[in-house]
Amino acid sequence: MAKAYLSIEGVGVTFQKGSARSEVLRDINLQVDQGEFVSIIGHSGCGKSTLLNVVAGLIPVTTGAVILDREAVEAPGPERAVVFQIHSLLPWLSVRENVSLAVDKVFRGVKSDAERKAWTEHNLDLVKMTHAMDKRPSEISGGMKQRVGIARALAMQPKVLLLDEPFGALDALTRAHLQDSVMEIQATLKNTVLMITHDVDEAVLLSDRIVMMTNGPRATIGHILQPDLERPRDRLGLAESPAYMHARAAVIEFLYARRAA
Amino acid sequence: MTFPKPSFSEAEPVAAPLKPIQAPAESLPPAEEPRASRFSELGRHSRAAAAAILPPAVTLLVLMVLWQVAAGDSYTGVPSPLRIWTESKDLITDPFFDRGGVDKGLFWHVLTSLSRVGVGFSLSAVCGVLLGVLIGANLWAHRGLDPIFQVLRTVPPLAWLPISLAAFQQAQPSALFVIFITSIWPIIINTAVGVRNIPDDYRNVARVLRLSPTEYFFKILLPATTPYIFTGLRIGIGMSWLAIVASEMLLGGVGVGFFIWDQYNSGRISDIVVALAWVGLTGFFLDRIVALAGRIVSRGSALS
After folding, report:
1. CB distance from B201 to chain A under 8 Å?
2. What is the ipTM of this complex?
């Protein structure tokens, strides 16, 4: 059996603070194929963000390993670009400079100055932010900031794109717009995506597979659901689709009914 | 469960006419518009200026009148504003005279004091930021140095002067050292707080991008800390101005602090009041200059 593109193998994370040990994650196993969109859903504090940070390399594993494209993950790097929860743009740089900081760092010596500039603009165009390239983060809305965050991550040409509750702080309408944009971009670029969310609709709408985490401490994968939905998906059409309803009900059932167990 | 599918088709005609309404606003004949707006802008500016200048001017006038009434015409104690004007008219109207020695206009005294502050404060700014970054970024440096700094920063400026004189044997370097040691603490402490408050998100961005330590210092740490550094610099320059005037009183020579002490010894209280006005205004402008520099450097994103 060929190894998956991204493979999380027996990962456990234990934090140690002084003499207090807390085991956050235990025995997580997950295989993600190239081009697949996988969301991880669970209650607050279940360690789903920790799992994403482990894949990013920001938090070291205590046991197990993360393997991406046949290489073990040991430190953070641009091939695993993260779109953080809001406020990760540098406020003293313009929108363009925020993206070009990443582009210049990743493609220095590979692309010429002109190519890097064009690449920066191309990625801002993907998220429809070319109109505000010279504004500062404080001058644009939360949704726009998140678009820029996505452009910055895409511009690194990551092997896997990690989204850490990227739309959590946005209002419902802005969130829907951004979800549509992400779906569109993913359909074109075929990125491998791992997304943390606590929004059931978001998970069902965007994902090829939904990974449901049990409650912490010692959280692990409880169940994996594969929504039986054709792509491209359309928010309005899906609202009445039985497959969508079914997937949604299954996730809610897991999150709320089995909570006590 | 089947809900009727909501139809949005009726809403669309409402949205359509919006465009023609907006269009004329953009294509107004340009000849009329700028003139009208320039006039109203002028009016707005002069109103804003009046709102900024009038209240303090009126307050100042009222205080002067109260002072005049309270001081009266007595020839002892604090002179009244009118007597200050008659006694110190030369000093007020001509700050630039220079009759050799220490008999100079106030401008020259203030300039000497300012140049001392300039040197001492520049030194403390550089050292303060570097030390602040060190104790902000390094836990052991913080543990080792912070308690010592917390004690030293409470030592009053003039308490340093005797030690400083003993060490340097001369007035000029002693004055510089007093400024340095007075103004460095707020710079160190604010810089350190700024470094410690860099959001984790910025650090993580730097880690994902694999920025080198040098790149991290110049591209993330320094800009993220700039607002805090300038808060420290603003407090620092105010304190160094306090320190220089006090230390010059003891050191003698030229300088506005010495001038005040000298006039006191010759019983010219009116001149002291004039010098105080110079000291106050200079301190005020120093503070504004540092604040302005902070706004420019942090590109308007900081200093709230």
Report:
1. yes
2. 0.88
